[in-house]
Design brief:
six-stranded mixed sheet; 14 helices; single chain; alpha/beta; about 500 residues
Length: about 500
């Protein structure tokens, strides 16, 4: 695969980390430095406790410190578990180019192919891959011919001071459900464990002294001792028949480090908020894992990262800083029903000129603080560049839609213009207890209503896909523009409707 030139602003390729003598490596170690789900987080931001965390420069500084500590009989390698793109306007509005530029300064060796790598479409993805100075890997990706596409690799080998390090990567099988399906319609995502196991065996046969697995699929661990860990990434780890020295997972945006199937499994939090450092002795003794949370310390970052970030933000400053509204209270996105989701669904209904609005919960990506709301902040609520779609469908079909939206036992959407109660203990397809218009009037099963959603939902099997529609109309209104336009129409300061619009009848006030 062509490495190509660095993205604009990246400058020349940075110097490699320090090396040591080959003789000293006979009893040395390999340090794996892992991050995941960067999501174009060029700048640090406040977390729920008010601390400033993450961002490109602080992530770079943390990686650089971990590299510098790897002295004597130690070599280091930097990997990630996917989702480099989508999340902040300074990168998103340039289709990910600034993210590529900062990655090219961080000595990254390889990473998994994430679902959000497809957000700008395959043509843009391939262009960005040509600019990246590291490989994106997906051993389980196939095209319509059943072969691996020519633009992707399943594994790679890097050499650090004579030490061969194999890296095998996989995309999550969840990818078609977590990006626009039309962007991956010609691709198949196979079960990764057998394919990764095969390549791990092959890499060792080819002389790899250490093998690292990376996958864009994750999970969560319960309790203070992470022995009960569940989710797709952990299931793949359990299914591996050939074992890597460390397995790096992602997608869930949480920190975890544990051992599964006899080897370390680590998961770093998103947006540059943490790295995982795994030291693997070459004498076969047990590896150590260390989670390193990242605050706003940018001391010692790789050359050029901070300037790339500043230039990227300067280019979009006017649009980024455009005032939109003032919020009377903070609006977190917690649980399955919340005030911010109501506002987003209301914006779809009003700006799309329809009877109802609906928005998938996965399309709402951030909390919103009280006070001034700028256009850049609006973009981060729904950063995908989706457009509105107006549907026409019968009232009876709306019931089917609401049933699909609670098929997982809890609402997966927010709605506007309607109120729904359900019984989560009933069997799937029989959970709707009542559904009315927002004014309490009943639905008419035979009437044709209009509903506005985003275009991701059209192909989503949990919402619109498969419904009997009368018609659909693609509107020329982007998600962030619709939200900003609606916010400006509201009385200021904006106070959101806190009504729980999809409610479990057995849990009064349930989110």
């Amino acid at each position: 695969q062509q490495r190509g030139r660095a993205a604009e602003g990246a400058g020349s390729r940075p110097a490699s980390p320090p090396t040591v003598s080959q003789a000293s490596m006979r009893t040395g170690s390999v340090r794996v430095i892992a991050f995941s789900d960067f999501h174009a987080a060029l700048r640090a931001r406040e977390d729920s406790t008010g601390r400033v965390v993450g961002g490109a420069t602080a992530l770079s500084a943390a990686i650089a410190r971990a590299e510098r500590e790897c002295t004597g009989a130690c070599v280091s390698v930097v990997v990630h578990a996917g989702d480099l793109f989508t999340g902040t306007p300074a990168s998103d509005w340039a289709a990910g180019a600034p993210t590529v530029a900062v990655m090219n300064r961080m000595h990254v060796a390889a990473g998994a192919l994430g679902n959000h790598e497809f957000d700008f479409g395959q043509d843009t993805l391939r262009m960005r891959m040509g600019e990246l100075q590291h490989r994106l890997l997906a051993v389980n990706l196939r095209d319509n011919s059943g072969r691996m596409p020519p633009w992707i690799r399943g594994d790679t080998t890097v050499v650090r001071n004579g030490v061969r390090i194999g890296i095998v990567g996989a995309a999550g099988t969840l990818t078609p459900a977590t990006t626009k399906r039309r962007n991956v319609a010609d691709l198949t995502f196979l079960e990764p464990a057998p394919l990764m196991s095969e390549r791990i065996t092959a890499l060792r046969a080819q002389g790899a002294q250490v093998v690292v697995g990376v996958i864009h699929d994750g999970g969560r661990c319960a309790g203070p001792l992470p022995t009960d860990c569940r989710g797709g990434g952990f299931e793949v780890a359990r299914a591996l028949t050939s074992k890597p020295d460390v397995f790096v997972i992602g997608h869930s945006h949480v920190n975890a480090n544990t051992r599964v199937n006899g080897f370390p499994v680590v998961e770093p939090a998103s947006s540059g908020r943490a790295i995982q450092v795994i030291d693997i002795p070459l004498d076969g003794s047990e590896a150590t894992m260390t989670l390193r949370p990242i605050t706003d310390d940018t001391t010692g970052a790789h050359d050029g990262v901070d300037s790339i970030v500043r230039v990227a933000f300067a280019r979009v400053a006017d649009r980024l800083q455009r005032p939109v509204a003032t919020l009377a209270q903070a609006m977190p996105h917690r649980g399955s029903q919340y005030a911010l989701g109501n506002l987003v669904a209301d914006a779809a209904r009003v700006m799309g000129n329809a009877d109802f609005g609906m928005w998938n919960n996965g399309g709402i990506r951030t909390d919103v603080p009280s006070g001034p709301l700028l256009f850049g902040g609006v973009h981060e609520i729904s950063p995908f560049g989706n457009v509105l779609v107006r549907l026409r469908l019968h009232g009876a079909t709306m019931r089917t839609l609401f049933e699909k939206a609670i098929a997982g036992g809890r609402p997966s959407v927010h709605i506007s213009g309607a109120l729904v109660t359900y019984d989560g203990d009933r069997p799937k397809g029989q959970r709707i207890v009542s559904m009315t218009l927002a004014n309490g009037a009943p639905f008419d099963d035979a009437r044709v209503y209009t509903l506005v959603v985003n275009d991701f939902m059209i192909d989503d099997p949990e919402t619109i896909q498969g419904l009997a529609l009368v018609a659909q109309e693609l509107l020329t209104i982007r998600d962030s523009d619709a939200l900003a336009g609606y916010f400006t129409r509201l009385p200021q300061p904006v106070r959101a409707d806190t009504t729980i619009r999809i409610r479990d009848v057995k849990r009064a006030g349930s989110p």
